[in-house]
Task: structure prediction
Amino acid sequence: MDNRTAIIKQPDNISSFNDVYKLQKEYQEALILDNSNPDFIWIGEHQLCYTLGRGSNYDNLLFSLNDDKYDVFKIDRGGEVTCHMPGQLVTYLVLDLKNFNKDLNWYLRKIEEIIIKILGAFNIDCHSRKGFTGVWIGNKKIASIGIGCKRWITINGFSINIDCELENFNKIVPCGIENCLMANMIDYNKNLNIQEVKRIVKKTIEEEFNFDFISK
Amino acid sequence: MSHEIFMPALSSTMTEGKIVEWLKNPGDKVERGESVLVVESDKADMDVESFQDGYLAAVLMPAGSTAPVGETIGLIVENEDEIASVQEQNKGNQPEASTSDQLELVSNKTEEKPVVQTENIKKEAEEVVLKSEKPVPSFNVDQINAATSNVSSRIIASPRAKKLASQMGVDLAKVHGSGPHGRIQADDILKANGQPVSIPWIGEGGSPASIPGANLGVESKPETSGNSFGNPGETVQFNTLQKAVNKNMESSLDVPCFRVGYSINTDKLDNFYKKVKQNGVTMTALLVKAVAKTLKKHPQVNSSFSENGISYPENINIAVAVAMEDGGLITPVLKEPCNTDLFELSREWKDLVKRSRSKQLEPDEYSTGTFTLSNLGMFGVDRFDAILPPGTGAILAIASSKPTVVANSDGSISVKKIMQVNLTADHRVIYGADGASFLKDLANLIENEPETLVS
Result:
């Protein structure tokens, strides 16, 4: 398969969830209109916020929606509620699956594989669990996945907890799994930092999807 | 001319998909390429688009429901004036009066699918019309919005509640939600429709010993009329789970089974349960623990038939039958209950039940039972006997614990809570005496030392 061009953006500062979401939508719309447009990858961090998929159960939010303390976004991805915050690396992939495999199950499993490779680069042993999309270390969840798709153009992606305040997950039932324990990569490898993980995420995605990256 | 919207295949392995949300309401204008609904499979959502300009005329499957890949889930018409006729046609009330265009639509279907299916579609469409008369409010999710802005006007209801509401024609806006933050639950819809709230299907929570006599609604009130998978006059295909159960049940016909019953006094167990209940202990966990501990003393009752002889499993794994709301049953397994404390066991059980409901169990979580429990106590039944699942030697049927007048050995009379249990066993490996002595020890444990079930 020929390499495909993808635009990659990896800001060092904390990015507004809303702005990045809009950016993803722009790239998705562009690809829908003309499939010769490039794919788009975004790797970065958000301020503390909670996001719900379109089918999410509001019971999994353990605080009132009236509570102004928390930013809550309802977005077009599958899955239940999750939480983003500094110290968690979020990767969005706006890809045209028509160039890979028009199969969302394949895509979810591919993303799990990619995350397992990323953690493997830091000597962290992790695994996927059948029926529980995401990546796990023992019974603790280290990475979450949520995908939206329109005309086989994907949106959203995955988040890996690197060194973040896991207490923020106590305000929700993460992914709708009761008593779901979360983990940070830093607890399994003291020597890593988020910049290094970012580099490996970029490298792994580049290899796995045969991308030629253009930085932006 | 109307066009069908089909359930799309999101992956090569997908057989059915869940409709997360209809982004358009019946009667809405849709443009070619515009998203009409959202379908979910696992953690991935897919927008389903309209292939032509027109109007969404009918929603045949409501949000929250699942449909097989390829199933017609909605209808789009080209002209606005066709909406009413398509809706009318899909009502199924006056098929003779419908236009030739729509008759063609139905006859197209009958060519590929059994007639029953056409009936189904009509019936479902009937619900849809009800729904369109009393529209279910939907959220605007197309735009991203900090959900805090429009809370007061939004109605939150569980998927099952939404489905029931559309089936019964209940206006969600008028229903008081009893769930968290006023979320409307299925029971609220039943109440709003004047129907008795049905007893939960799943054998959890309502325990045989904990049901107060006054609450045994089953005895005095008839079940809700809605308690079936199809409508009168229909034949509904078995779902995958029902087919699997059928196969298992049929294979039991080759097994020479016998049954042996016992009446167990649960007064002490009930008292103990009251104490530990606040720590999250469930009656199922207590019963599983009691059975597992007794099986440890009676490995013969944990054995099963194999071509090579009597097979003794390395572990004691207790499977517990759980009825599924949409048909069929599943037997989540509590592994090695003897090695797990009561509180952990209760947590495990709650997790298994939850994941059974959402069909997220892994094969080894429902197929590795060495002994099975079936509990219908929550329905207030006196006694029943269970069918032996293949690959195991015995199953215990547990009925309701009821206040009973008992003659004591000293000649006095008293009222005690009595629970009947009934063991079904494969006589090739378990004999009457094995079953009877197992039940005797189980009764002794429950009647005299329930507190030892903690660890």
Observations:
- Residues 178 and 211 of chain A are 38 Å apart (CA to CA).
